[in-house]
Amino acid sequence: MNQKPTFDDIFKQNERRIHYQIHKMNIRDPHQEFFQEGLVALWNAYETYQPDKGSMATYFNYMIRNRLIDRMRRDNRRDEIKKLAAHEQQTQYTDGNYHRGTEGARPITANSPLPLDDSNLWKNLQSQLTDKQWKWVNYAIIQEMPYKKIAELEHTTVDAVKNWGRQVKKKLNNPYFHEMLSLDEINMSSSVH
């Protein structure tokens, strides 16, 4: 009569097999999490092994290796989700249309407001900007849309939209550009009233 060995016996004989698979796959395991996965795989293999299907050692290697691969995939997927969530949170926090403070986000208000109803100003400005820069002005300034929404509408990334905004801001900070658009006169006349 061929009696099935106990799991303790199987563990003593195959503990090095788990370490070997971890080492072979170049897994750093300082907290023994992968070893625990390998141990669970060994237990499952012990419970489901059928002698007529093949060698026990081959089956154990197969089960341990695949369990470790599954664990690595789960960990990688979780890390990727964390990175995406952190990036999304950072993007929302650094969206250039809001001041951030302890009381929350509030829209940025201009120190010297541009007359939003001056169609000549907007046409003049539009003529001096690229299509993408004008889209940023239209969406972010005039329509007060968040960068994420602009990126969705334009089928691009939030970083691309931010870059459009940086380009516009660089132009608007140039004194020559102010003179060309007559912004100084508009700001002077609006501050007199």
UniProtKB/TrEMBL annotation:
It comes from the Bacteria. Pfam families: Sigma70_r2 (PF04542). Signal peptide: none annotated. Gene3D superfamilies: 1.10.1740.10. Keywords: DNA-binding, Sigma factor, Transcription, Transcription regulation. Residues 11-77 form the RNA polymerase sigma-70 region domain. PANTHER family: RNA POLYMERASE ECF-TYPE SIGMA FACTO, RNA POLYMERASE SIGMA FACTOR HI_1459-RELATED. Belongs to the sigma-70 factor family. ECF subfamily. This is RNA polymerase sigma-70 region 2 domain-containing protein. It comes from Lentibacillus halophilus.
